[in-house]
Amino acid sequence: MVYVAADSSITGPMRLRSYYAVACYSDSKTKFSFAEGAVLQVLQKDPSGWWMVDASGALGWAPASYLVPVDEEDIAEEKEENERLMSSMRVGARYISLSAYQASRDDEISFVSGAIVKLIKKYADGWWLIRYNGGEGFVPGSMFRKFDRRQGTAYVKNIRRKFHARKSTRIIPTMKPKW
């Protein structure tokens, strides 16, 4: 197989890495699926944790967490690739959760919707290591978006508004009027 590079020069054959599926996957929208134990070829890896794969001639996006390398050489190459990919990510940046998450394993961490977390490390399979409420744990990276200062100001104002709204609806005992 010959590929054409962006500058229109012809490159040599591209070696596709093979992965085993550790679980069944099916996407009803695209009709893409594969069975547990299937051997898939990875065509493209996205930092979001979704990889473009070839499953016996059918192309589709699959969650990277469903795939493990077939041989030792691929495992070593994947580790190097993960390090290259993650070194370009901004560690220490703050992110905001789009929804709540309940940890299902000891190495994961739970958080509420709207939680502001600090990124420790991103992995190519889409899982992140974060710091939240004094704890650290793994979470699905797809549940976050970048948090910047402008959002921070609006976020704090919204929290204050909600707090004051709740505070103002409390019934506070008062003295009876003298009539």
From TrEMBL:
SMART domains: SH3. Residues 16-72, 90-149 form the SH3 domain. GO terms for biological process: superoxide anion generation. PANTHER family: NADPH OXIDASE ORGANIZER 1 (PTHR15706:SF10), SH3 MULTIPLE DOMAIN (PTHR15706). This is Neutrophil cytosol factor 1. It comes from Geodia barretti (Barrett's horny sponge). Pfam families: SH3_1. GO terms for cellular component: cytoplasm. It comes from the Eukaryota. Keywords: SH3 domain.
